[in-house]
């Protein structure tokens, strides 16, 4: 299984965001996770499309544009999706609680030329995937409650990851499209092996990476733990 490390710039130095993005990609990260909070759906306020657009020229990997993975923690969500697509997002994920029509929102994201993701809070059931798997490109399991960085990993998320992996594998076996399984919240060197073994292939890490000076060393250690776990 291919593993992708997606540092969350929520934990980066906001006074040096462009530099931080360049440095973490040069250190071995695969993509950039871009957390959008509106002080309505979640009790925090972060950044919007203008910042995404400003960072787009700085987000390059091996001479090519790196993936910008936008996680929308906003409600309502449909209005702002085209703005992020125009700003350079590659993946746009949303919480099903933030829309009246999940199928319509997934379709809107894809119509804008982006991959579409659904985000599941710790207490949100995966049953919401039942009738829309054909329109989903990414499933994001929250292993903390959304709103703030630096929280501790909720162990029950491992069971949810296993269930999500079964759903993805069954969908692909039936001829369905590839779907990434991402995890966000409390991911660090100490637990990434167990998280990968539970089925995740894309790992959002904020303070675990940006909280240290040696970005390359932390990312290398994370990959080593995934390999050790046989994930």
Observed structural traits:
10 strands, 231 residues, alpha/beta, TIM Barrel, 8 helices, eight-stranded parallel β-sheet
Short structural summary:
The chain is α/β, with parallel strands linked by helices. It contains eight helices and ten strands. The chain has an eight-stranded parallel sheet. A two-stranded antiparallel sheet has the order 3-4.
Please characterize this protein's 3D structure.
- The protein is of the alpha/beta class and 231 residues long.
- The chain has a single domain (4-228), classed as Alpha-Beta Barrel (TIM Barrel).
- Helix content is 32%, strand content 20%.
- The chain has helices at residues 17-26, 49-55, 81-87, 102-111, 157-173, 192-197, 207-210, 215-228; strands spanning 4-7, 31-37, 60-61, 64-65, 67-73, 91-94, 115-120, 138-142, 180-184, 202-205.
- It has an eight-stranded parallel β-sheet. It has a two-stranded antiparallel ribbon with strand order 3-4.
- The longest helix has 17 residues, at 157-173.
- It starts with a strand and ends with a helix.
Biggest sheet: strands side by side, in what order? 1-10-9-8-7-6-5-2
Return the structural class.
alpha/beta
Please tell me the CATH architecture by its name: Alpha-Beta Barrel
Query: How many beta-strand runs?
Result: 10
SSE order in H/E notation?
Answer: EHEHEEEHEHEEHEHEHH
CATH level-4 homologous superfamily: Aldolase class I
* Overall helicity: 25-40%
Q: Give the C-alpha Rg.
A: 16 Å
- Give the CATH topology: TIM Barrel
Say what oligomer this is: single chain
- How much of the sequence is in beta strands? 15-25%
Overall pLDDT confidence: 97
Q: Please report the distance between the alpha carbons of the first and last residues.
A: 7 Å
- Total domains: 1
Helices, by number, come to: 8
Tell the overall outline. Answer: globular
Main beta sheet, described? 8 strands, parallel
């Amino acid at each position: 299984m291919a593993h992708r490390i997606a540092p969350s710039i929520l934990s980066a130095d906001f006074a040096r965001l462009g530099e931080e993005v360049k440095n973490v990609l040069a250190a071995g990260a695969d993509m950039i996770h871009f957390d959008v909070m509106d002080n309505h759906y979640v009790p925090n306020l972060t950044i919007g499309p203008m910042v995404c657009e400003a960072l787009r020229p700085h987000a390059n990997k091996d001479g090519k544009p790196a993936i910008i993975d936008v996680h929308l923690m906003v409600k309502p969500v449909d209005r702002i999706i085209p703005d992020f697509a125009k700003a350079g997002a590659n993946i746009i994920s949303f919480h099903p609680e933030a829309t009246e029509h999940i199928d319509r929102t997934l379709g809107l994201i894809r119509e804008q030329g982006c991959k579409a993701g659904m985000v599941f809070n710790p207490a949100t059931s995966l049953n919401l995937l039942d009738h829309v798997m054909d329109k989903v490109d990414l499933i994001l399991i929250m292993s903390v409650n959304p709103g703030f960085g630096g929280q501790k990993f909720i162990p029950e998320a491992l069971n949810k990851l296993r269930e999500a992996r079964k759903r993805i594998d069954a969908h692909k076996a039936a001829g369905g499209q590839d779907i990434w399984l991402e995890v966000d919240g409390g991911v660090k060197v100490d637990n990434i092996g167990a998280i990968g073994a539970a089925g995740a292939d894309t790992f959002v890490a904020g303070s675990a990476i940006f909280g240290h000076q040696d970005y390359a060393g932390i990312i290398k250690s994370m990959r080593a733990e995934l390999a050790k776990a046989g994930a």
